[in-house]
Write a structure and sequence with these properties.
single chain; 229 residues; mainly alpha; 9 helices; 0% strand
């Protein structure tokens, strides 16, 4: 294995506190994120463009709850989630824990990719419900010092919230055209072969994409290039 050169930074900036790094966020929000007490339902509050409007439009008895109305699009969820991970990464870095910082950075990137994949397959309100429950589970893990969960899919939650809520894509032809038999018989994600595994690029178990590691040609426990069929 070739040696990896050391990381070198010229004139590194002086260390700043979380309060200096994120002046637009409330101190209580920063502390809740650092203590892993931040409520997933309050994620929209990390984006002023959405939190101001949501607070005005919400009746008093509904504040503190969350729904797809707070996140009308993928962008409206990703934007405050990005801020959340920035705070979390900055907090880990300030502690001097390089490995935790790396795990958070890697896990957040995988989770963004996961959300984009879900957005192509399932109804948006169902994805919001999935995310809220997924975040709650990750929060409990982080209290115990485990940040690796962000890089994993959750088959149980997908079965609970997503598999029955497949997204209906508009047909390229007439609106009256019936859906093709292929779309009706589409397998759940957990039963679909992992393309990266078949290319020899995915070796993690469980699969980060939530798919099965089987040959896409014969269903055997080997990658496609090793298939003798």
């Amino acid at each position: 294995m070739p040696s990896v050169p050391p990381f070198v930074a010229n004139n590194p900036p002086s260390k700043s506190s979380l309060f200096d790094l994120f002046p637009s966020l409330e101190a209580s929000q920063l502390l809740e994120i650092a203590r892993h007490e931040f409520r997933p339902a309050d994620l929209y509050k990390l984006d002023s463009r959405f939190r101001d409007r949501s607070d005005i439009d919400r009746p008093d008895d509904s504040k503190g709850k969350s729904s797809s109305k707070d996140y009308p699009s993928l962008h409206s969820l990703i934007t405050p989630l990005f801020t959340y991970f920035r705070v979390l990464s900055a907090f880990a870095a300030s502690s001097g824990d390089a490995e935790a910082t790396r795990v958070i950075a890697d896990g957040s990137a995988r989770y963004y990719e996961h959300l984009h994949d879900l957005h192509q397959r399932y109804e948006w309100p169902a994805i919001v419900e999935y995310h809220l429950q997924y975040h709650l589970i990750r929060r409990r893990e982080m209290v115990n010092g485990d940040y690796s969960g962000w890089g994993r899919t959750d088959g149980d939650l997908m079965n609970r919230f997503l598999y029955s809520r497949l997204r209906v894509h508009p047909n390229s032809g007439s609106k009256r055209d019936p859906p093709s038999p292929k779309s009706k018989s589409a397998k759940p994600l957990a039963e679909q072969p992992c393309w990266n595994f078949n290319k020899g690029e995915c070796t993690s178990l469980p699969c980060p994409d939530g798919r099965t590691h089987k040959c896409r040609l014969c269903g055997g426990d080997h990658m496609e290039k090793k298939c003798k069929k």
